[in-house]
Amino acid sequence: MTISDKVEFQEDLRLPNGGVLPKSDAFTDSADSSEFYDDHLVDSKELEMRPLNMDSLKGDGDEDDSTRKEKLLASTPELEESDGIFITSKPWNLEDWLYPPHLPRECQLLRPENIAIPACYLLVGILQGLSGPLINVYPLDLNATEAQQVTLSSIRSLPASFKLIFGFISDNFPIFGFRRKSFMLLGWGLAALSMSALILTTNLTLSEEEYEKEDGSMGTQTVAPENAPSVQFLSLTLLLFGTGFWMADVMGDSLVAEKAKLEPIHARGATQSSCYSYRFFGLMVASPFSTLLYSWAGPFYVISLLALLPLSTLPLVYMLGEVQHGEVASTRQQCREIWNTVCSRAVWQPLAFVYLYNVLQVGNSAWKQFLKTTLGFTNVQLNLIQNAACVLLYLGVICYKYFLIDWSWRLVYVVTTLLNGVFSILQVLLIVGITFGLSNFWFALGDDAFAEFIGGIQFLPTTIMMVHLCPHGSEGASYAMFTTVNNSALNLSAAFSTLLLGIWDVSKEALANHELQGMVNLTMLTTCMQVAGILFVGLLPRTKEELFQLREKAHGSSAIGGTIFLAITFMSIIYSITVGVLNIVAPGWSGES
User: Fold this and answer.
1) Of 141, 316, 383, 414, whose CB count within 10 A is highest?
2) Where in or outside the cell (predicted)?
3) Running DSSP on this structure, what letter comes out for residue 61?
4) What is the pLDDT along the chain (593 residues), one digit of tens a residue?
């Protein structure tokens, strides 16, 4: 029986985009029907764009292709043919948009029992967008040193290095029988409580006062009150906020990993892609809003939102549908699964590239201070750069998804790394005052924002690779481990950037006096380190097929590789924490200002 015969006679099938293939009593082979559905109805886009196979339209009789095509189209009103392509159509309706019929109920995210999951991802994006501009400028208003600014920027995300721990705790120690719901409630509660403590115990107002510049002219500067939060207390509240934030995020990731197993073949990835779209949307909307709110009313209202918004999602988490007192794998079993995974060459080799590459992405920690002190950028301008970066980060993800997804992973990293090096060198031109007629702000905006665009392009190849590395049955714990590797490398990179501040004089005083040779040297050094990441691109497979082939090569499974992999990961976490704490409690310990 040909494909066209199956389309014409099988039981009613609801297509991914809403079309329905008609029922016929002449065909009742359910196994054959199911096989056709799995093999041919992969997703709506693939179905709509698949060329018509003329050979498959030939029947057992003497009918020609055009006759059989006409019969098929006549019997199926939802099917239209254009240039050899079948297209299904159905009037849009709200119910199918809210609850996609091609997905099982468990994967329909907007149902009451599931809506906490997209709400969690949306809230993660909103809180990232609100807190980014705040952390970008508030430490400057508190007269934090360069080292403290770097640490404050990274300390909120530091608990992301403990994702694996959060995952194991929720797997092994359910609260009231719930592995995800209870810890999501706990995480959002902790995030709200930490910001509430900041509001209730300190003065978050700011004032403007005039001062006389060295040239005799008058200027204005932001002044914090005496009972403003200290850098140490602000760091503590941000650390607690980040702990709750990332704990809830891990629970959301675990729920998505569980539900992704229930997706039909034609809709694989729909749940994950939808959740990330909510997250990036929240980030883009909240970031400019936070900038305007901070410039208009100061940090108090921004921090108030950070305290209130996590509470708003608690009723949705309470309604979350989760099996109570479900089967819990033992810690020994989970550790054995993780160990077997990291010993595979298909895991430790590509993740070695991810780790080494991210460690070398060392930024210029004095850059923000240079923009504010030397170039006189206002808080609004600094936050506008942050907002543009959020938008271009999303555009980078979209660019890869629609234009670069067929590129090899190696080529993506080589091209984007070289482009990033070019734009990093442009920072030197800004330092020495060569902007080709553009204002300092627009020159800096293009430079900093484009770096985020490149980061967005590199985001999806990494996540795609990590998803393919997850073994069946332990996707949640494995994905948490892989993201821990990524996050620990980024935190170590931030720690390195702090250490480099002591090599040349890039203190606030030197920048105020326009002594900029140290800034030039530091920018050149960090640029060379970032570009050096492509030296390890040979460790990265070109495609997912080549990724799986690594298991068949020499040392396809290596206990030594797994041991080194885990040792470096946890040593990086410990080092990052140590440097971060020292920067807060003993600023200048490594020689930086």
Assistant:
1) 383
2) Membrane
3) S
4) 333 333 333 334 444 444 444 444 333 333 343 343 344 443 433 333 334 344 444 445 555 556 665 665 565 555 555 555 555 556 667 777 788 887 888 888 889 899 999 999 999 999 998 998 888 788 888 888 777 776 787 677 778 778 878 888 887 888 888 888 999 999 999 999 999 999 999 988 888 777 777 666 777 777 788 888 988 899 899 999 999 999 999 898 888 877 877 777 666 656 777 787 788 889 888 988 998 898 888 899 999 999 999 999 999 999 998 888 877 777 787 778 778 878 888 888 898 999 999 999 888 888 888 888 888 888 778 878 877 888 888 888 778 777 887 788 899 999 999 988 888 888 888 888 888 888 888 888 766 777 788 887 887 777 777 766 766 556 667 777 787 788 778 878 887 888 888 888 888 888 888 888 999 999 999 999 999 999 999 999 888 778 778 877 766 778 888 888 888 877 877 776 676 667 666 666 655 55
What is the C-alpha separation between 429 and 422, in angstroms, rounded? 11
- CA atoms within 13 Å, Cβ hemisphere of 9: 13
Stated pTM of the model: 0.69
- What's the one-letter identity of residue 277? S
Q: How far apart (Å, rounded) are the C-alpha atoms in residues 149 and 135?
A: 8
- Phi and psi at 220, nearest 5°, equal -120, 145
Single-letter code of the amino acid located at 315: P
The whole-angstrom separation of Cα 453 and Cα 459 is 10
Contact 235, 155 (CB under 8 A): yes
Residues 6+ apart with CB under 8 A from 585: 232
Q: Where are the alpha helices (DSSP H) in 84-157?
A: 94-98, 116-141, 146-155
Quote the distance between the C-alpha of residue 381 and its chain's center. Answer: 25
Task: Please give the structure tokens belonging to residue 232.
Answer: 């140490």
Distance CA 407, CA 464 (A): 13
Residue 550, token pair as written in the block: 């690594």
Taking CA atoms, 76 is separated from 2, 73, 86, 431, in Å, by 17, 5, 11, 67
The whole-angstrom separation of Cα 147 and Cα 586 is 10
Return the structure tokens found at 488. Answer: 């620990």
Buried b (16+ CB within 10 A) or exposed e, 456-485: bbbbbbbbbbbbebbeeebbbbbbbbbbbb
What does the block give as tokens for 394?
Answer: 């999303």
Estimate the share of the chain in helix, then strand, then coil, as percent rounded to the nearest 5.
70, 5, 25
What values do phi and psi take at 229, rounded to 5?
-65, 135
Token pair 């109805």 in the structure block, residue: 41
Contact by Cβ (8 Å): 500, 362: yes
Ramachandran angles phi, psi of 236, nearest 5°: -65, -45
Q: Cα separation of 503 and 49, whole Å?
A: 58
Q: Is 388 helix (H, G, I), strand (E, B) or coil?
A: helix
Handedness of CA 166, 172, 173, 174 (dihedral sign): positive
